[in-house]
Amino acid sequence: MSQEVFAKVKSLLKSLEKENVSGESDRIFILLAELLSLLNNNKDSQTVEQQSSKYANFGPILSYINQNYNKITKIEDIAKSFYMSKYYLCHRFKEATGLTVIQYLNNIKIQHACNLLINTNLTILEIGNECGFNSSMYFCKIFKQTVFMTPREFRKKAR
């Protein structure tokens, strides 16, 4: 890793450390996406400046996902909002972040679910619905894949 890339990673990590995790800000997600993009693309021979300009338009897409995570039912919803095809969005998103759109969206949903499990008395079914999961079984499956425990176990350990 070049000194320039290392310095950028260090700067992003310091910025992340200063962010309020429990806040409503989308900045933490944008910083994480930028960090993922930087690390993912470091294996290429491009300079950091070329990489940054190549993926500069993903900030609004990430912000849109972070703000509408519980309303997005299909990738097409995102693609239409940015006047691009589903396939182009998926390809460029994976290239920019190292994650698929669904992986990123589910990670956002699970982060919000964790917050609700800790800070509310909503049922697990209500939390799944609140976070945009249409099925409680799917919510529990994705939650367990991501957090390595069920929502009930997570709530029990967090309290």
If you had to describe this structure to a student in words, what would you say it looks like?
The chain is mainly α. It has helices at 3-18, 27-41, 48-54, 58-68, 75-81, 86-97, 101-119, 124-130, 136-147, 151-158. Helix 1 packs antiparallel against helix 2 and helix 5 crosses helix 6 (86-97). The model has no long low-confidence stretch (mean pLDDT 82).
Write the layout of secondary structure elements.
Layout: H1 3-18, H2 27-41, H3 48-54, H4 58-68, H5 75-81, H6 86-97, H7 101-119, H8 124-130, H9 136-147, H10 151-158
Q: Give the integer mean of the pLDDT values.
A: 82
Rg, Cα atoms, Å: 17 Å
Strand elements, count: 0
The proportion of strand residues reads: under 5%
Pick out the low-confidence regions. none
In helices, the fraction of residues equals: over 70%
Shape descriptor reads globular
What order do the helices and strands follow? HHHHHHHHHH
Cα distance, first to last residue?
41 Å
